[in-house]
Amino acid sequence: MPVYKAPLRDMKFLLSDVFDYPTHYQGLASGENATPDIVDAILTECGRFCEEVLSPLYQSGDEEGCKLENGEVITPKGYKEAYQQYVMGGWQGLSAPEEFGGQGLPASMGLFKQEMMGTANWSFSMYPGLSLGAMNTIFLHGTDEQKQTYLVPLTEGRWGGTMCLTEPQCGTDLGQVKTRAEPQGDGSYKLTGTKIFISSGEHDLTENIVHIVLARLPDAPKGTKGISLFIVPKFMPAADGGVGERNGVSCGSLEKKMGIKASATCLMNFDGATGYLIGPENQGLECMFTFMNTARIGTAIQGVGPAELSYQWALDYAKERRSMRALSGKKEPDQVADSLIHHADVRRMLLTQKAIAEGGRAMLYYAARVADHMVEAHTAGDTEKAEKYDDKLGFLTPILKGFLTELGCEAANLGMQVFGGHGYIREHGMEQIARDTRIATLYEGTTGIQALDLLGRKVLLMTQGGAVREFTFKVANFARKHLTDKRLRPMAVELLKLTAQWNVLTVRVMLAARKDRDVVSAAAYDFLMYSGYVSMAYMWLRQSAVAVDKLDNGGDESESFYQTKLNTAEFYYERLLPRAQTHATSMLSPTRSLMQIEAENMAFTG
């Protein structure tokens, strides 16, 4: 069975050399204990846990799946024991405030942990991952009493958490939510309704599950302005910090899914369930965006994770599997045929996976620094600073989620292709990676929704192109600094051209949208993908600049490590970045070709 190996060398290269996290942590109140030695020890131990405990459960969990028996969900064999090891290791509270039992480390440390866990076993990581979102929501919007009641057991990992948004009649359009919340006169509410696609809605890993639920109060305004947010526990909290009587919330069924089968995706029924308002009335969607943005960044990991895992397994296979002779001549004359690794087309697939995994990881770690500042400002009560960094992160989030998950699917499919027919059968695990990855482009908002959020909301409506101008200004300044080095100049010149083009495209779409509203929707996907390719190009230039410096002056890694970084960047710029121009052309195409066919003429059937 294939095994996962934590990419610690690449992670440490990004943290220490590319993004200078040691200095970053020194400037954070929560970074006092995040010294290089401590960070290194945490990453190493988390890598060991993922390799030895979570990875071996990846395929077996898929084969067994979850079971619903008498309203209770039973997770696959080994999951409960693995979760207990997770709890005993203190992993859930890694970045949680010390006042609630956490270790108080920066939020980014949780992301690094989540990346390794998600790559080793995405289904398992969903359970504690959903809890982290619930914790963030309660921490930012809950009352002091709610924080004391729920954050301690959630931080300890004794309790789990969920987000309950979607209903049978609505997915992304949450203005159609029908779940009702009736006030009871004692500060509590009775919630009635049905939620679907609820990850970790029911399971046997924790003694309680805390649901964060969107619902409507009586006489609430229609649409999204009439939605409130509630805490609804599976068991009512007891005075001693344990659990009391069962609440009126239950799992009605488990979804039969394409992938992540070891993650319980539930239909949840709320039958007069007791809940408590969190945040102001009718502002639930605003409060829930805390949870949703957390989840979207977490989902972006499911673009990087499968690219990394599929690449690791495909690379090993390509080194061992023999087929034909290389076109440039025999590479292994003593063998019956040359290894796949010697064929240029196989190299194309492997390097695409590698470029996606390592470029995507850099994009995540870049955003994680911004998230650290945002969380720090929220904790300190500095609203102005928090909003500033929230806006910066808000621009990056749809790019991370939409672009990286699309490329994650591509990388997973390429891994299957390297294996050929063996990639299509379960034994090697490659088809599971592809199945598990597919959901990442769908939940927490499809790629189209992320694209509309980026172009329609963040770029056009909220900033009139300012978000693009601000980001590209920073990228262009970095590129200009590296025009004099002949090894970096081609990449720097190309990146400068792209930053200018990005701004021009933004203005052209903005002007076209004034005459034709469909332009925004028609251009959104291509705008997002273009933004992703240019953003990843920036990350590869940053990595290349460090690699060149280390090649000239020495570094902690081998010369071959830095040279390979530079070579991978060259591959990205020559083979993958040209895709951006296709998206540039497409986003400026008139909407007529999309909208001119009448709906009844879309299919020529009987």
UniProtKB/TrEMBL annotation:
Residues of the Acyl-CoA dehydrogenase/oxidase C-terminal domain: 282-453
Keywords for this protein: FAD, Flavoprotein, Oxidoreductase
Residues covered by the Acetyl-CoA dehydrogenase-like C-terminal domain: 477-597
Residues in Acyl-CoA oxidase/dehydrogenase middle domain copies: 163-271
Limits of the Acyl-CoA dehydrogenase/oxidase N-terminal domain: 41-157
Cofactor(s), names only, from the UniProt record: FAD
Transmembrane segments: none
GO molecular function, one term: oxidoreductase activity, acting on the CH-CH group of donors
EC number: 1.3.99.41
Catalysed transformations (reactions): 3-(methylsulfanyl)propanoyl-CoA + oxidized [electron-transfer flavoprotein] + H(+) = 3-(methylsulfanyl)acryloyl-CoA + reduced [electron-transfer flavoprotein]
Enzyme class name: oxidoreductase
Listed PANTHER family: ACYL-COA DEHYDROGENASE, BROAD-SPECIFICITY LINEAR ACYL-COA DEHYDROGENASE FADE5
Role, per record: Involved in the assimilation of dimethylsulphoniopropionate (DMSP), an important compound in the fixation of carbon in marine phytoplankton, by mediating the conversion of 3-(methylthio)propanoyl-CoA (MMPA-CoA) to 3-(methylthio)acryloyl-CoA (MTA-CoA).
Protein name from the UniProt record: 3-methylmercaptopropionyl-CoA dehydrogenase
Organism (species): Marinobacter vinifirmus
Lineage start: Bacteria, Pseudomonadati, Pseudomonadota, Gammaproteobacteria, Pseudomonadales
